[in-house]
């Protein structure tokens, strides 16, 4: 564990908590893409299956349980409790165009052809594009509440911090996973134009407007 | 310390 990975995990946890609080306090999931949240739940489910038979550390186990619980909790709030506020008209990104290629790629490019490794690889590929429905929805609605942009900033920062963690581990000549690194770079690049808008607009108190 | 395919990152 290093400071970059710890900050990355905490940024990820912060993003999920910001989203849960936003939905719970405003009792609304307006502007939030349920499809992206659904993809995140798939990512965590496929990746954390080893929860039950490998123990890496208490931190690792606790965080996996928290991420699984909060992602399914968010789905519950969006699709059941506050279903009436879910904006399905703007949440229309075809997620099968993300899931199917991730499955195909995981079967083709992986480190070991075992069920656990294929699922882990699938979760890495899917996570790199899982935010697209949310970014698509923000560009369709043309704007996002500031709390949603804080959520996106924390979520985008998590994998950017992981890139710093991989650089740090490279200097320590620790084992690295090329698949996770390439996918993590792609994932972070997808946030770049949002990061630009966030840093130049939202932090100056303006609304976040994505070019439609 | 980890076998080749144990993923220690979240």
UniProtKB/TrEMBL annotation, chain A:
It is found in: Endoplasmic reticulum membrane. It comes from the Eukaryota. One of its GO terms (cellular component) is endoplasmic reticulum membrane. GO terms for molecular function: ER retention sequence binding. Its main location: endoplasmic reticulum. Belongs to the ERD2 family. The chain crosses the membrane at residues 62-80, 92-109, 115-138, 150-172, 178-199. The keyword Cell inner membrane does not apply. One of its GO terms (biological process) is protein transport. It is a multi-pass membrane protein. It comes from Bemisia tabaci. Keywords: Endoplasmic reticulum, ER-Golgi transport, Membrane, Protein transport, Receptor, Transmembrane, Transmembrane helix, Transport. InterPro entries: ER_ret_rcpt. This is ER lumen protein-retaining receptor.
């Amino acid at each position: 564990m290093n400071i970059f990975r710890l900050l990355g995990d905490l940024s990820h946890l912060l993003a999920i908590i910001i989203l849960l609080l936003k939905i719970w306090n405003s009792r609304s999931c307006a502007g939030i893409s349920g499809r992206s949240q659904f993809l995140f739940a798939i990512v965590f489910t496929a990746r954390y299956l080893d929860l039950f038979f490998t123990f890496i550390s208490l931190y690792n186990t606790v965080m996996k349980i928290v991420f699984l619980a909060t992602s399914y909790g968010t789905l519950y709030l969006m699709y059941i409790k506050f279903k009436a506020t879910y904006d399905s008209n703007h949440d229309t990104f075809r997620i099968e165009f993300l899931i199917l290629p991730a499955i195909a790629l995981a079967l083709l490019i992986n480190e070991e052809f075992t069920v656990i490794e294929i699922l882990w690889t699938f979760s890495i590929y899917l996570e790199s594009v899982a935010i697209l429905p949310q970014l698509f929805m923000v560009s369709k609605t043309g704007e996002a509440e500031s709390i949603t942009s804080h959520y996106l900033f924390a979520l985008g920062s998590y994998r950017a911090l992981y890139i710093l963690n991989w650089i740090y581990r490279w200097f320590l000549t620790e084992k690295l996973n090329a698949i996770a690194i390439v996918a993590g770079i792609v994932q972070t690049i997808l946030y770049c134009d949002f990061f630009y808008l966030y840093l130049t607009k939202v932090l100056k108190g303006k609304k976040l407007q994505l070019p439609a | 310390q980890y076998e080749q395919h144990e993923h220690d990152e979240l």
